[in-house]
Design brief:
- By secondary structure, this protein is α+β, with helices and mostly antiparallel strands.
- It contains 23 helices and 11 strands.
- The longest helix is centred in the last third of the chain and has 20 residues, at about 495-510.
- The protein starts with 13 loop residues before the first helix and ends with a helix.
Length: about 575
């Protein structure tokens, strides 16, 4: 199945969009693709297949899909068949399948005399696999010890003259893969006031063209380098992530640096990004999930309109986005972007000396003189509210709850709160998830979360669930019931023992996956920590007693103080009336 979709704002023409999509699809036959276009897409598809086979989890999922078609080896025959596709093959298949009678637009309208597609019979598998050997070759990785202490011993740290920090963890990986992240911080509360909209648009334009590359050339280079890359930014920082192979890491770093340092912000791309952001903001006006999330954030963080931490209304966000000009973007970029407060983390198969040299060449002279001070949340005691917000004509409803807590992750109560949240609603076997999803069948997902800043004094305990609007009152009542029970009776020794094991296993798995390990190391680097912090955290969690966890949960979580926001079409089903 080929699926083509378009998201429109209310002032865009649905008829024009439908016509454009149909004309584009039909145009594959009328205006055949060039050999360059076919080779580009072949490279992209084959690259994705190779990347999937370099990841054990994705490889297993890919194989499970083709097993349903009859044989796991079909994955490899498909790989080799794609290699042989020509422009003529594309046109032939387009003529066969891209017919009006084989297309559904919005709703299916039967025709009196349909021209049905006759699908050729599949080849016999025995003949297909006779003498076949795949050309796909994936190298194997070495065993890796995911304990924080073992990981810490393997990290090489350094700093560039401009202050940018570098943390490198080389290891042999399956398929010779490597993951890297780049984080660049800038600004402070004063200088970033009113800059959220322009900062977001600046970041969204980084991959749209540089002094030497167009947007298409950037995409082509990523395919050529067999890399998955994302470069972007917001009002207080810019980021880049790379997933590629060992031999392509340094060239990929050069491509990322080009986007970060040499973006030119083309006029046409600016107009496109601005329209996309306005459309995205407008879509949040009626979506229950966005309505509830936004309302809860505004309630728990009542900052003034001029504060960068302020959560705007839909109308305020639209106003801010519409006011941004291309000149504003260029000024923001010139004022804030630089690597003076940046860091780079690399995990996987690579040569340390080559990466260190490339980092110095690419980022060592990229400085920023704008003042920088991390923006952190401030604890505020909030008067609890319980608000219902109608979202007409929506099949699903969203329920969200939250509580501000005065603490950070250095507080002695932090480990106990982390494990208490894990048992109450932070895992699939937690009390809230088990009761609401597994036993009552009210929601596909009901979770709680607990987070605490590393700097400042703000932590939050939050909960969230989606359900049919008619089920929401019962879901809310169960949350209150389970929370009251956890506060009054506490968690059991058995729950605590099982939670400790599950929590530990979850952290081990996370540190075993390169992308998550890059993120973990980057987070620690950002706050001047090593993975010794994780060793200590694991030990603190393991040493917790049931009594300590229960006492902390009672001390820190007051059911009466929790704010609740729910959004959905409650009037239609007679809920909360």
């Amino acid at each position: 199945m080929v699926l083509v979709t378009a998201t429109l704002s209310k002032d865009m023409s649905l008829d024009e969009a439908r016509k454009t999509i149909i004309d584009t699809v039909s145009g594959v036959v009328a205006e055949p693709p060039t050999r360059e276009e076919v080779e580009r897409e072949k490279a992209r598809i084959l690259q994705a297949m190779e990347q999937n086979m370099s990841n054990s989890q994705r490889a297993a999922l890919s194989l499970s899909e083709v097993i349903a078609d009859g044989d796991w080896r079909l994955l490899f025959t498909n790989y080799d068949q794609i290699k042989k596709v020509t422009p003529d093959d594309v046109v032939r298949v387009a003529k066969l399948y891209f017919k009006a009678s084989n297309r559904t637009v919005g709703e299916f309208i039967p025709t009196p005399d349909p021209d049905r597609t006759e699908v050729p019979a599949a080849p016999l598998l025995d003949s297909l696999f006779s003498g076949f050997q795949t050309s796909m070759n994936v190298s194997q990785g070495d065993p890796f010890d995911p304990t924080p202490a073992a990981i810490e011993k393997r990290i090489t740290r350094s700093k560039l003259p401009n202050g940018m920090k570098i943390a490198l963890l080389p290891k042999t990986t399956r398929g010779g893969t490597v993951a890297a992240s780049f984080d660049f911080r800038f600004g402070d509360l004063s200088s970033l006031s009113g800059k959220e909209a322009v900062g977001g648009m600046t970041g969204a334009l980084l991959m749209r063209g540089t002094k030497t590359r167009t947007r298409q050339q950037i995409q082509d280079e990523m395919v050529k380098l067999n890399t998955r890359m994302n470069v972007g930014g917001g009002f207080s920082g810019a980021t880049a992530s790379i997933q590629t192979t060992s031999e392509n890491l340094v060239p990929s770093m050069r491509l990322a640096a080009d986007m970060l340092r040499n973006s030119v912000f083309p006029d046409s791309e600016f107009d496109t990004v601005k329209k996309q952001r306005v459309t995205g903001i407008e879509s949040g006006r009626s979506d229950p999930g966005q309505i509830a999330t936004r309302a809860l954030a505004r309630t728990l963080g009542p900052y003034p309109r001029t504060d960068p931490r302020y959560t705007g209304t839909v109308d305020e966000n639209l106003e801010d986005a519409n006011k941004v000009t291309l000149d504003d973007v260029k000024k923001f970029y010139a004022q804030f972007y630089g690597a003076s407060h940046g860091q780079m983390v690399v995990v996987g198969q690579f040569d340390i000396a080559s990466v260190q040299k490339a980092a110095a060449e690419l980022f060592g002279d990229w400085t920023n003189n704008a003042p920088y001070k991390r923006i952190t949340g401030e604890y505020r005691k909030i008067a609890p509210t319980n608000v219902k917000i109608e979202a007409p004509d929506k099949a699903d409803a969203t329920w969200a709850a939250g509580l501000n807590i005065e603490m950070n992750d250095a507080d002695p109560d932090y480990p106990a709160m982390v494990l208490a949240n894990f048992m109450f609603g932070g895992s699939i076997t937690s009390r809230m998830e088990d009761r609401i999803r597994n036993r009552e069948g009210l929601s596909y997902g009901a979770q709680t979360g607990f987070s605490a800043n590393s700097e400042g004094n703000l932590a939050r305990f939050q909960a969230r669930a989606t359900a049919n609007p008619a089920n929401m009152p019962k879901l809310e009542a169960i949350f209150k019931e389970e929370l009251a029970k956890a506060i009054a009776e506490g968690f059991t020794d058995k729950e605590v023992a099982e939670a400790k094991k599950s929590f530990h296993d979850q952290r081990v798995v996370g540190r075993s996956q390169d992308a998550q390990l890059v993120s973990l190391i980057a987070t620690r680097e950002d706050f001047g920590r090593t993975l010794d912090w994780d060793t200590q955290m694991d030990a603190k969690v393991e040493a917790l007693t049931t009594a300590q966890i229960n006492a902390t949960f009672r001390k820190r979580v007051d059911p009466v103080a929790i704010t609740i926001i729910k959004s959905g079409d409650f009037k239609k089903v007679g809920a909360y009336q």
